[in-house]
Amino acid sequence: MYAVLGSTAVVLLPCALCVCCATLAMARAVSGRPKWRFLPACRTRKLELLQALCNEHGIESSWVSVADRAGGADGRLSVHVARLRCRGGTTRRRGNAFFIHGANSTSVMFFETMAALAEEGYDCYAFDLPGFGLSDGPPHVLGLDGDGLLDWYAEVSADLATELELAREETLCVGHSLGAMFAVRLEARHPGRFSSLLLCNTPGPLPTFGELGSLPGFKFLLGFPESLFQYLGRVLCPVVNFWQTYLGHGSLALFRIQRYSDRAGYGAWIIKRFNNFHWSGSGFWQTTVLAELFRSTVPTMLAYGETDAVVPPHQGDLLTHLSQGHMPCTVVRGAGHGMFLSHGAKLAYLARDFDAESRAEGAEAAAARRERFGLVAGSVEAIPAMHYRTSFSRAHTRGTIRRLYRDLLAATGADDAPAGPPP
């Protein structure tokens, strides 16, 4: 495998260098025209791009100061927040929606969902996690391990919700990817801080991905393409942005590329703290939140993309079966891991319906949910993640996933029926 990668790199690198040089020459020639003003990779251009996107959706952009509990008594963080008030006035208002994004992402990915939810009567709040987008990332966070990161980001999210004065009883928390793990830890540390949780494409509950799970692990080790943009952003961003602009992909496509140029490199670095992968392909997701997920005191729903290769939807089927239906799961047809960018409106309606159902939950149903959750949490606490290492072998990985599923079903007493179609 490494021989193939090496020979491919020898052929492609000179070609890529030629394309970069030619594109930079063209970019320099058109740099003075208004249409091409977003080519450079710098904070000024990011702010201009953000403002253009906010204006497009009617979103307010601001910075909120929150406490940095690990940064000393006087530590403060400046967190960028995007807000969108409900449309139609207070008479149509249903509540709040609080969004937490994942690694290598920003609050911008939720704009379409926020616009649709605002039409449904929700005040929407999305923020850039510290170290991502336009929020500052303190250097001391780089020394934390996986559990420490979960705690730190969960506390920042909880403090921000408090600063924004979001009422517990009327605020739905929506977490995507790694942001869903932060939402789970937040609920574990501050039970009932939100009225319900919608967890989308979360990688945290199980120590495995899909059949091709070692390929994302290999990507995490390489830090590609994040590390390239971290160190070569001044060259690569103008190149990629030139072609994005030429093809007419819009401001959102440009912003997704611009975010990679952050010098802190949080995106490439942070994922490595949560997994244990080796260059040989052997690895597992070492920081799991399976037991914490089932300690949730509020209604919780899962959502997965149908074509997500990182976190396959059959994981949601398993978790729903373990909960005996008390943790429902929805699969978004045609969506991948970044489903908020491709199916934003559909996810808004899913959030609206789930919020209405969770508020209508009766006392008896809530008691049954908590009882089942408690039983599962106690049963899965001692299952070690390191026993479920995957590899580049698809057959071996498939067998590991099946063994994990059998062990979880047996441990929770739910092995009397299938838990969806594991690969």
Describe this protein's structure.
- The protein has 423 residues and is an alpha/beta fold.
- The protein contains 15 helices and ten strands.
- It has helices at residues 2-30, 43-57, 111-119, 146-163, 178-189, 214-222, 226-246, 250-258, 266-270, 290-293, 314-322, 339-342, 344-359, 363-380, 394-411, and strands spanning 60-67, 76-84, 95-100, 122-127, 171-176, 196-200, 275-277, 283-285, 300-305, 329-332.
- It has an eight-stranded mixed β-sheet, with helices on both faces.
- Strand 1 and strand 2 (76-84) form a beta hairpin.
- Helix 2 (43-57) runs antiparallel to helix 8 and helix 4 (146-163) crosses helix 5 (178-189).
- It is globular and about 70 Å long.
- It starts with a helix and ends in a 12-residue tail after the last helix.
- The model has no long low-confidence stretch (mean pLDDT 85).
How do you describe this structure in short?
With 423 residues, this protein is α/β, with parallel strands linked by helices. Helices cover 46% and strands 13% of the residues. The strands form two sheets. An eight-stranded mixed beta sheet has the order 1-2-4-3-5-6-9-10, sandwiched between helices. The protein has a two-stranded antiparallel ribbon with strand order 7-8.
